[in-house]
């Protein structure tokens, strides 16, 4: 018993972390749908970003959260290693292909933001998917985005005050617009029954 029980547990975890065809298909659909959301937000969100920046440099980060939501949705719905990165990266790629004003930099951002969310789900061993985890994943994506922009957008030269305000704004936006909104969207989808083949759907029913 002492030798077979750990082996059975390890095998069970291996099965639950293995991607199925349905996981790949749904992750792809999520990525494309989120990419279309990004395309809309590239106009609306960027206008909001610029307005907040004019108010106080750094406050523009409050508009960033929607661009981080792909990783949160991927992690919450698919619940498999790599899902957060896959969905965020695919969404960023769709956004770029449909004319994002940031061109290839959009993909770089997708990689960083997806990894930021992915690390949070990994830290939870892909076993906790409640609101705190969702908001932390949004924060993880936000910190990753902020870090990348130190170099990609030359923010490193803008001074400590700007960096502190921008970091705080991006973190708040990531927690709310990516984390909270992503969690609410997942619950809403689960309530319709479309996620019944996923643990996220079954957990909602319970």
Provide a descriptive summary of the structure in words.
InterPro entries: ABC_thiamin-permease_prd (IPR017195). This is Energy-coupling factor transport system substrate-specific component. It holds the Pfam family ABC_cobalt. With about 210 residues, the protein is mostly helical. The chain has one domain: Arp2/3 complex 21 kDa subunit ARPC3, CATH 1.10.1760. Helix content is about 75%, strand content about 0%. It has eight helices and no strands. Helix 4 runs antiparallel to helix 5. The longest helix has about 35 residues. The protein starts with a helix and ends with a helix. About 5% of the residues have low confidence.
Write the layout of secondary structure elements.
Layout: H1 4-17, H2 21-55, H3 69-78, H4 83-97, H5 105-123, H6 131-152, H7 160-192, H8 199-205
